[in-house]
Design brief:
By secondary structure, the chain is α+β, with helices and mostly antiparallel strands. The chain has helices at about 5-25, 55-80, 85-115, 140-155; strands at about 40, 45, 120-125, 130-135, 140, 160-165. It has one domain (about 5-165): Orthogonal Bundle (Helix Hairpins). α1 (about 5-25) runs antiparallel to α2, α2 runs antiparallel to α3 (about 85-115) and α3 (about 85-115) runs antiparallel to α4 (about 140-155).
C-alpha cells in the first residue's frame, strides 16, 4: 500500500508534464516552419499568410479538443483507480476542475472575439499565458488592444502574457 502513493504521485506528475506539453504543442507543429514574427508598421500588424483560414481554425479546434480529451482520460484513470492515494486523487480532481475552467475561458475568448466582428479566432490558455490566433493579416492598434482586453478580462492573465497571432 505504501508503494501506491509514490506511484500515484509519479503518475500525477507525468500527467502534469503531459498537460504542459500539450499546451505548448499547439503553438508549433512538428515538421512545420517556425511562425514568422509579426511586424508592426504605422499602427497595423502584418504577417505572412500561412494557409487557408477556415480550415486552419477548424483543424486547430479539433486537435485541441482531442488533446483535451486525452488529458481528461488520463485524469479519469487516476480518479477511477481504487489504488490511487487520496492526496493524488485530490490533486487529479483539482487538475480536472482547472481543465474545465480553461476550456470554458478559451471558448469565451473566442466567442467575444467573434462578437466584436473578427471573422474567426482560436484561443489557447496554458501556464505561459494566452495565445489568441485570429483570422486576418492586418490589425489596427485599436483591434489589437480590443483582443488583448478580451483575453486579459476573460482569462485573468497579465497583458504581457497575451500573444495575438494573425493568421490568413
Amino acid at each position: 500500500m505504501k508503494r501506491v502513493r509514490p506511484l500515484g504521485l509519479a503518475a500525477l506528475f507525468l500527467v502534469g508534464i503531459f498537460c504542459i506539453y500539450l499546451g505548448f504543442s499547439g503553438v508549433l507543429r512538428p515538421g512545420s516552419k517556425e511562425q514568422q514574427a509579426p511586424q508592426q508598421k504605422s499602427g497595423v500588424l502584418e504577417v505572412a499568410g500561412q494557409g487557408t483560414g477556415s480550415a486552419f481554425f477548424v483543424n486547430f479546434r479539433q486537435e485541441r479538443d482531442i488533446q483535451r480529451q486525452q488529458q481528461r482520460d488520463l485524469l479519469n484513470e487516476l480518479l477511477n483507480n481504487s489504488n490511487t492515494a487520496a492526496e493524488t486523487r485530490k490533486a487529479a480532481q483539482k487538475q480536472m476542475l482547472e481543465l474545465a475552467q480553461t476550456i470554458a475561458k478559451e471558448g469565451e475568448i473566442e466567442n467575444q472575439a467573434l462578437s466584436k466582428g473578427f471573422k474567426d479566432a482560436v484561443a489557447t490558455i496554458n501556464n505561459a499565458g494566452v495565445t489568441l490566433t485570429v483570422l486576418g493579416s492586418q490589425f489596427t492598434t485599436a483591434q489589437i488592444t480590443q483582443l488583448q482586453d478580451i483575453a486579459v478580462r476573460t482569462s485573468g492573465v497579465r497583458l504581457e502574457n497575451v500573444v495575438i497571432v494573425p493568421h490568413e
